[in-house]
Amino acid sequence: MAPAGAGVQGRTGTAPAALAILGALVSQNIGAACAKQLFPQVGSEGVTALRVGLSALLLLVAMRPWRMALTRRGALDIAVYGVTLGCMNLLIYRAFALIPIGVAIAIEVTGPLAVVLLSSRRRRDVAWVACAVLGLWLLLPLHGASALDPRGVAWAAGAALCWALYIVFGKRASTLQGGQAVAWGMLAAALFTVPVGVAHAGAALLDGPVLAVGLAVALLSSALPYTLEMMALKRLPRRVFGILVSSAPAVGALAGFFVLGERLGAVQWLAIAFVMLASGGSAATAGDERA
């Protein structure tokens, strides 16, 4: 029998953790909306370079990962992890440039959702696969007034694939202690994305206002969400975490509306709802392990 008050303590611990995850989602998507405002100045490649490069610097200062040397195998895992992280950022920002943020995120989250569902052997997960497929079909550029730029859909699909690979290789790199894997991985991603951004935007990346917004994007999209997630993950069951994260497309759509004035059609909202249902449903029917 659980000791008296244990349930209350669990609830009081879970509620702040859930709010922290929601705060992380809001921060990430406001950061994405701010990033999109920089596209006319430095392009999606330049914004990716600013976000990843500045995030790497912030994490290196905060985590000081050099205090523990990497093994050859660890360095290889980190390199692959960082490249997938960098590709994911490049592709999703290219998608943001062509389609609404909420729609792009709805497509992108199918990457980790596919990892979960493909590793499951439960028959009931077929329903969640069907929801995700229906949502994606509704987002294809085939539906009249709600049609999307095919290039934006393709970039978002590429980001989904990179997110799936990021999970696989991130698991291998996660054996490093503390935040070392994230810090080293972000540095590896910066070594890949910053030259691409510099080649595209050049000296415009050093413009004062551009750097200021880039720093805000790095803080909102990486540093603050990472801090909030680290505070919350140890207290949240995996299914609760999954359900909360499944709201990311809706949060992204709202951020796009309030910050950028992006308006979605009824078909697009329906598609987002199906993807969210698939993600949240698969999380809700999973085990109760900690995240």
Features:
single chain, 291 residues, 78% helix, mainly alpha
Q: What does this protein structure show overall?
A:
- The longest helix has 32 residues, at 6-37.
- With 291 residues, the protein is mainly α.
- Helix 1 (6-37) packs antiparallel against helix 9, helix 4 (101-108) crosses helix 7 and helix 10 packs antiparallel against helix 12 (266-284).
- Mean pLDDT is 83; it is low at 1-10.
- The chain is built from twelve helices and no strands.
- It has one domain (21-284).
- Helix content is 78%, strand content 0%.
- The two termini are 24 Å apart.
What is the number of independent domains? 1
- Mean of pLDDT: 83
Low-confidence stretches: 1-10
Helix content: over 70%
Task: Give the end-to-end Cα distance, rounded to a whole number of Å.
Answer: 24 Å
Give the SSE layout.
Layout: H1 6-37, H2 39-63, H3 72-98, H4 101-108, H5 110-118, H6 125-139, H7 150-173, H8 180-201, H9 208-232, H10 238-245, H11 248-260, H12 266-284
Helix pairs in contact: 1-9, 1-10, 1-11, 2-3, 2-8, 2-9, 3-7, 3-8, 4-7, 4-11, 4-12, 5-7, 5-12, 6-12, 10-12
TL;DR?
This protein has twelve helices and no strands.
